[in-house]
Amino acid sequence: MRLRSKAAALLLLALAALLLALLSLRPGRAETRERPAPPARAASAPQRHPAPGSASVPGPGVPARAPRRRRPPRPRPRASRRGAARLEKLARRPGEARSFHAVLPRELWIHLAVVACGNRLEETLVMLKSAVLFSHRKMHFHIFTEDSLKSEFDKQLRQWPDSYTKKFEHKIYPITFSVGNPQEWKKLFKPCAAQRLFLPVILKDVDSLLYVDTDVLFLRPVDDIWKLLKQFNSTQLAAMAPEHEVPKTGWYSRFARHPFYGSAGVNSGVMLMNLTRIRSTQFKNSLSPTGLAWEDMLLPLYQKYKNAITWGDQDLLNIIFYFNPECLYVFPCQWNYRPDHCMYGSNCKEAEREGVSVVHGNRGVYHDDKQPTFKALYEAIRDFPFQDNLFQSMYYPLQLKFLETVHTLCGRIPQVFLKQIEKTMRRAYERHVIIHVGPNHMH
Q1: pLDDT band for position 6 (50/70/90)?
Q2: Angle, CA 74 vertex, CA 68 and CA 78 arms, to 5°
Q3: What is the C-alpha separation between 274 and 284, in angstroms, rounded?
């Protein structure tokens, strides 16, 4: 018992000593937290960074300096304002021009050219409508047409709603050919089609240009194909899509009696051009041992091959780029999608992956029942009321029309036609609903 009492006493003494040690340490910690103020500097050493409102004390013989004023901190904009400004820049109703259209320099506008003669008025207006529906950047339309159609073009375009007309300007030109017999050029292949060969000569103040046939429809912003100009290398001055994806079944590889580009030729229905480069290039040719300028080459080239060409100006372009392949940029078939890409089975892999970007309804497929899928697209854009909702008045009716075309080879792949147009419409719809209505008001 005595041993136990002694052990208990020793334990109590140890605990008491530990408690005293802990109590003695607490003031020491407080002292370490409260750092003593640094000693004042000598009067002879002026302060480098005086406190605001206090003057530095100069030493003997040192001229006094005025106290330095600190620049007040710049007020930072509130995050909500900055975010609202960013959203406002992105906000755009379908068909409504963005605010930067008013200040966008003209050299940054998209230039779109079309040649329309005969009964191509409606087709051309539907093409221009498809360009305006989805595009963002301001455009300049260069419309080449006969005198009898000029007033009707002008009248129809001015009747479009202001929210669309502010997105473009247009100019109407007569049909003119600077060399050779105008009547002979005018009758080459289709009425006035050869006019496109003379665009670099006529549009001398235009740097770059997108030419399309009247039977073209845009299913995504024109801005996207315009961006392909930036992919040109230092020698390329024009871009077109192949005439065929399978050379052995192509027309040029089987029937052409003249030189043509590559293994399958190119189609000129959608043609992107750097006109500045075209005007300054000397082109290799089969007419002269030296290079020829674009304008100087056209007539001799036509005279040499006129009995061998079938597709008029397109054949002449194929001959030019046969001798100058380094000048051509070839873009994928999704940018010039024609019935040939699906009427014998799907053969445009880019369109299967990414969807059709530009439809080219050649063979008159918008106006007969041979390819109802192409006709349905044309009528959906033609009949769309400008101010209506894109999904309700265009996309959903188009889906229903496509259900009626599944018995055709082109109609069996509706997703190829719908993928890009759905993506474009959804982007416009989300900007309208989420930004203009607001996410808090959506149910």
Answers
A1: low
A2: 160
A3: 18
Sign of CA dihedral 435, 436, 438, 443: negative
- Structure tokens, 385: 């009321």
238-242 vs 328-330, strand pairing mode? parallel
Question: From residue 317, how far is each of 22, 37, 240, 258, 310 by CA, in Å?
Answer: 96, 87, 10, 11, 12
**Whole-angstrom Cα distance, residue 429 to residue 434?**
8
pTM for the structure as a whole? 0.75
Q: What does the pLDDT read at residue 351?
A: 96
List, for residues 255-297, the tens digit of each pLDDT value: 999 999 999 999 999 999 999 999 999 999 999 999 999 999 9
Q: What DSSP character marks residue 91?
A: -
Q: pLDDT tens for residues 118-145?
A: 999 999 999 999 999 989 899 999 999 9
Rounded to an integer, what distance in angstroms lies between the CA atom of residue 65 and that of residue 57? 9
Greatest CA separation found in the chain? 136
As a whole number of angstroms, the distance between CA 193 and CA 139 comes to: 22
How far, rounded to the nearest angstrom, does the alpha carbon of residue 64 sit from its chain's CA centroid? 63
Q: How far apart are CA 45 and CA 62, in angstroms?
A: 10
Q: How is 298-325 classified by DSSP, letter by letter?
A: HHHHHHHHTTT-SSTHHHHHHHHHHH-G
Among 17-21, 55-59, 220-224, 290-294, name the one with the lowest average pLDDT.
55-59
The owner of tokens 């002879």 is 44
How far is the CA of 146 from the CAs of 119, 174, 190, 272, in angstroms?
Answer: 11, 6, 14, 24
Within 194-277, strands assigned E span: 208-212, 216-218, 238-242, 266-274
Compute the distance between CA of residue 251 and CA of residue 233 in angstroms, rounded to an integer.
Answer: 29
Sign of the CA dihedral 347, 352, 353, 359? positive
Residue 168 backbone phi and psi in degrees, to 5: -155, 160
Helices within 58-146 (DSSP H only): 79-90, 121-134
Other CB atoms closer than 10 Å to residue 310's CB: what's the count?
Answer: 13
Quote the tokens at residue 399: 């889906």
Cβ atoms < 10 Å from Cβ of 226: 19
Is 194 in contact with 185 (CB distance < 8 Å)?
A: yes
Are the CB atoms for 104 and 133 separated by under 8 Å? no
**CB-based contact 129:121 (threshold 8 Å):** no
Amino acid residing at 280? S
